[in-house]
Structure formats: C-alpha cells, structure tokens
C-alpha cells in the first residue's frame, strides 16, 4: 500500500517537474532534490519552513594533552561565546540566508555565565565538562552516551515543534576531528592513518604526532572493545558529547521527516553512527559539501553520498550546511513557483 | 606603482582574512573569492550592491529550419513573455536571492506588444528579427555585430549607473547552443563534433542531424573566412544578436570593475570571444557552474576556469549565475562581518 502511494506521489512529482517551462532534466540536481523533498514531505508542493542550524559544542579529554591539536582547549568555550555574539562564520551565513542558529552546550569544559545562558541562541544541555582522555579510558560512559543521544533527540523535537522542517547540524570542539577519525576507523575498519587529516590546521610535525597519538589510542582501546563493534561502544570509546548528541539529532530529525543537511567530516562521522543504528536516516538527508579534511571523501563514498557543494572548506560549525540550504530552497521554489508550458503558453517540443 | 599598491592591498586582505576566527584557509574557495572581490573593488571591505542578471534574447535563422532543435523558434518569444510574467526558472532564483532581472530583446523574431515593452524588466535593444541562416550566408553583418556589441556595453553601463556592481549574464534563444558550438569550434580550433551537445534536450536522431548540419555550416563558411579568424568574423558568421550583445556586456562590465558571473555553455562561448578581444575580463569574472552541455567543460579547461557549482544544470537563462551569486555574497560577508581572534577574545594557535 505504501509503495503504491509513494509511486503515485513520485509520478505526480515527476509530472509536475516535467511540465515546467524548461527542457526536461535541465535543472539537473535541483530536479532530484525537488523530488526527494516532495517524497520526504509527502507532497507535490513541499516547503522549507524555519530552517535551523544547530551547533553542538563539546570538549575532548585528548585536547588537554596538546597531542592532537594546535589550538588550546579553551577555544571551544571562546568560540561558543563568539557564536552567541554573532561573530563566527556560521553566524554570518545564517544571517545571510535567514536560518535560525542554536548553539548547544553538550559538554564544554567551561561554566558559562548568565550573559551566555540567557541568550536565545543558547541551549544548555551540558552532560559533562569535556570527555575523558581515550588514551587512558573510554571517553564517555555508556550512561553519558545514552544521555547525550536522548538530549539530541529532545532538542530536535523541540525545534520541530516550533514549525521547523529543515535542519542542519554543525559542531564545535577542539579535538573533535580526532574523535571523528577514530570513529571512522572503527566504523569502516580502516587503518587510523587513512582517517586522520589536518583538522583545524596542523603542520606536518603536528600531523605526525596526531597520527601517532590516535594510533596509540586505537591500539590501546581496540582489544578492550567487544566485537563486532556496536555504535554505542564506538561512541563510548572515542566519542564526544557533541558527537553523540548529533547522533540523537539525526535519528529524531529522520523520525520527524525533517529535511536534514549533513555538514563536514565530524558531522558525517556522527551520521555514520546514526546510520548504523537506523539506515532510514538516509532518506531525508542531503550531504551539503565535500570537506577538505581528508577522510571525508572516503566516508561519503562509503555512504554513496553525492554532496551538493565543493568549495574546499573545512571549518565545521555547520557552515557547509548553511551554504547548501539555499540550494534546497531553490529546488523547492522552482517546483512551486515556475510556470508550466500550459500556464505560460509556451510550445513544448514535439 | 600599481603593482605595489595591489601587493599592499593583497597583503591587507590576506591579513584581514587570516585574523578571522577560523583555522587559516578553512573557508576554502570563499577566501579566494573574498580576496578577488577585494582586488576588483580595490578595498578590504568590498560589497555586493544591487546584483543583476541580464538575459539577452535573440533568434537564430538556423532554428527556423528545424534541423538543430526540437523546440520551434516561437519558443524564444514565448519565453521572453514568461520572463516578463515571472514564471521562468531565472525569475524564481532572482526572487529568492534579491537579484534584479532584466530581459533584453537583442533580436527576437517577434514584435512584442505594449504589455511587454512597458514592463520594467524589459529592455528593447532589438537589432533584427532573428539572424540569417548560416547554412546560406553569414548570420550577422559586421554592422549588426558592432551594433550589438555597442548595445551590450550601453546596457551594462546603464545598469552600473544605478549603483549595481555585480552582474551575471544569461541568454534565451532557440538554436543558440548551435551558435555557441560553432563559435567554440572556430575559437578553439576543434572539430565541430567535439563542440556539439544535446542543447535543450535532443534525442540521438536529432543529435546526429544537428552535428551533420553544423558540420556542413562550418565546412561551407570556413573557406570564406579570413585566417587567422578574428572575434568579429566568428561572431558575424555564427553568432547571434544575444551572443554579440553579451560580448559587449562582458567588456563593459570589466571596464567598470563589476564582479561578473559567467553562466553556462552559451555564456562561456560569448566570454571566449570577449576574452580574445580583451583578456583583462578574466580578472573580474567568476565562472558560476559547470553545465551538463558537453563542450562546456572543455571551454572551462581552456580558460583555466574553476566553476563554483556543479549541479548538472543545462538550462541557460543565467540560472547558474543566479545560484552562484549567494556564494560570492557569503565570501564578502565573512570578510566584512566575522569577528577577528582579537576582537572576539579567541586564542589563536601558537
């Protein structure tokens, strides 16, 4: 029954797209996007309402060691302040495109004062003050993982209840490309080295140290993990609060049939975990861009994802997602606003 | 002296970009765009003011033969009406992004009535009622070519005088991918076959007839042309009114230091002609997207152009340019609006 309905809707969408005053197929990927958004929303006249970007922020025990990142851990909290004050790249792009930004303290190692917590952009979902160092022990307990996933779901459900049906997820956390690399290695069964990139801008010496450190972490933790690895175990060993919360966010956005934008390397690592828990999240997700962080392209290939943009960015914060939302909007707009051959009195080809 | 100034400005722009609260280089191509727009405008705080898309429309003698296109020639005029009534794809994207659209009758084979000519979107620049059939004679006289180029310059100068500093050019004209293919073959010295694509959606039989027809046109006209071929001679033999007008438009936009967006296959063919007349037009131009029309990628490679988008579109009308303008705007916005490490109190890396 459902298949038939979907097929009928697909046919109706196809018919509507074909009738537009343009050669068939000439809007390329916009036509596929229009079809997909129509199917997600079960409508031949879909709409993008109150798009949001949610930036999940959290700290990582490994970052305090200075072994994996050129920036001090304090930058995570400082960037949260920057988000709240409107000065970061994601603020700029959200303003440009009328996207509502929310910044979630998932586990930043800092006590924000009222000037931050009172902000309408800020969501207090702190589960801990940074993760533990995975060189020594699991980054998160399984209770913390479960709490973070539940919180991610709760946040998305609340945003959805305000009328939002389009959402992108970003992250901020010094050390979280390392977390994502280890998640990628564990999820895809790849050598650690193949999953590590420059992150936020390491030089070669720092890169070598980063690879060595992450290899060591992996070697220490892998024998202690149950096999086959479960999503929760990978998150517990190598995750961050912000990564686990994003996993919950993807799952809930899918359940609520929200058009979802996947950003870069870290966001895609979280997506991989969520995907292993529920593959249906692929159906409502668009991959915003290809990150310059090496490893991202491998994950995208693994997921058979075709990103919308490639601007050689590697900033995180959801910046790729924010730049891709107007592309989704363009697809929805042509579907709703363009004239048909019939209505415009334009001759169609024979 | 000028070199020194440029270098100083480059340094200042580099310094400003480096100070932004993000890892160096992490905004990828947006950083290059910000630099380029700054250099075009001679400012570390550039701006995009009143962006415009100008669609040049014209008919082609060859189209009346039915040998190269599945759509009847009447569609050019019908699409002009569609533009004026707001129902085409380019209308949708211009509305979405606050871009002013103008539609220029460069040489449509139709007498528009007052309901069209009174529209604020319409520019009457008609030089003729479609070109001649290049199977028989030159498509345009050299007087017509010169008049079209002059008119293109005049239109851009007028738009610039309203405060616009960012412009994209699109086109509409049944048969103009054929014109562009012949221009490409003549400009690049390639076999006609290598320059012909599906255009607005021909099937294989139509494609074969199109290639045969264009090959014949080329074979008939080439021996009559002076060698080496001049830009004006190529335009005269194979051009369209809208293509020649676009050549003038590129030249004037460059002279006025306007940020210029090059759209797809036909727009790039016109760009190639303008580039051969004045290579400086490269300095203020961005290539919006890679068209699905085969041949476009070859021209882009020849020009060493790296398009911003690849959404597999092949519609024309300036639709690719319209979708790329927000990317340019994002680059300018981050340069102007993002906080610096210093102003935001964010620790920079050591």
Polypeptide structure, described:
The structure is a homodimer of 350-residue chains. The first copy, chain A, has 350 residues and is an alpha/beta fold. Chain A has two domains: 4-47 and 334-344, Nicotinate-nucleotide-dimethylbenzimidazole phosphoribosyltransferase (CobT), small domain (5,6-Dimethylbenzimidazole Phosphoribosyltransferase, Chain: A, domain 1, Orthogonal Bundle), CATH 1.10.1610; 52-329, Nicotinate-nucleotide-dimethylbenzimidazole phosphoribosyltransferase (CobT), large domain (Rossmann fold, 3-Layer(aba) Sandwich). Helix content of chain A is 49%, strand content 9%. Chain A contains 14 helices and six strands. Chain A has helices at residues 2-18, 29-41, 74-85, 89-97, 114-117, 142-161, 176-188, 204-221, 231-238, 241-255, 265-277, 296-302, 319-337, 341-344, and strands at 52-58, 100-107, 122-124, 166-172, 259-262, 285-287. In chain A, strands 3-2-1-4-5-6 form a six-stranded parallel sheet, with helices on both faces. In chain A, helix 10 (241-255) packs across helix 11. The first copy, chain A, is globular, with a radius of gyration of 21 Å. The two termini of chain A are 36 Å apart. The model of chain A has no long low-confidence stretch (mean pLDDT 95). At the A-B interface, helix 3, helix 4 and helix 13 of A face helix 4, helix 5 and helix 14 of B.
């Amino acid at each position: 029954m459902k298949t038939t309905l979907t097929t009928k809707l697909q046919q109706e969408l196809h018919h509507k797209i074909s009738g537009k005053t343009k050669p068939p197929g000439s809007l390329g990927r916009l036509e596929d996007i229009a079809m997909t958004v129509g199917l997600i929303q079960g409508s031949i006249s879909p709409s993008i309402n109150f798009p949001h970007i949610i930036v999940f922020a959290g700290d990582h025990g490994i970052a305090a060691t200075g072994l994996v990142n050129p920036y001090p851990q304090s930058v995570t909290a400082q960037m949260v302040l920057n988000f709240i004050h409107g000065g970061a790249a994601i603020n700029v792009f959200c303003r440009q495109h009328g996207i509502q930004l929310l910044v979630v303290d998932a586990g930043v190692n800092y006590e924000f004062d009222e000037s931050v917590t009172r902000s309408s952009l800020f969501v207090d979902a702190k589960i801990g003050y940074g993760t533990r160092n995975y060189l020594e022990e699991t980054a998160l307990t399984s209770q913390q993982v479960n709490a973070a996933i539940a919180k991610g779901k709760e946040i998305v459900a609340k945003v959805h209840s305000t009328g939002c049906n389009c959402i992108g997820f970003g992250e901020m956390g010094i050390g979280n490309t390392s977390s994502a690399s280890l998640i990628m290695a564990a999820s895809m069964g790849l050598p650690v080295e193949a999953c590590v990139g420059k992150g936020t801008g390491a030089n070669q010496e720092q890169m070598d140290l980063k690879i060595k450190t992450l290899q060591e972490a992996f070697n220490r933790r892998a024998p202690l993990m149950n096999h086959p690895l479960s999503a929760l175990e990978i998150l517990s060993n190598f995750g961050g609060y912000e990564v686990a919360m994003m996993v919950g966010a993807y799952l809930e956005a899918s359940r609520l049939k929200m058009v979802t934008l996947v950003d870069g390397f870290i966001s895609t690592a979280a997506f991989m975990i969520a995907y292993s828990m529920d593959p249906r999240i692929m159906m409502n997700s668009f991959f915003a861009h290809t990150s310059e962080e090496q490893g991202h392209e491998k994950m995208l290939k693994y997921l058979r994802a075709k990103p919308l943009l490639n601007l050689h960015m590697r900033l995180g914060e959801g910046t790729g997602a924010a730049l891709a939302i107007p592309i989704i909007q363009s697809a929805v707009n042509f579907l709703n606003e363009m004239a048909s051959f019939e209505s415009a009195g334009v001759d169609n080809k024979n």
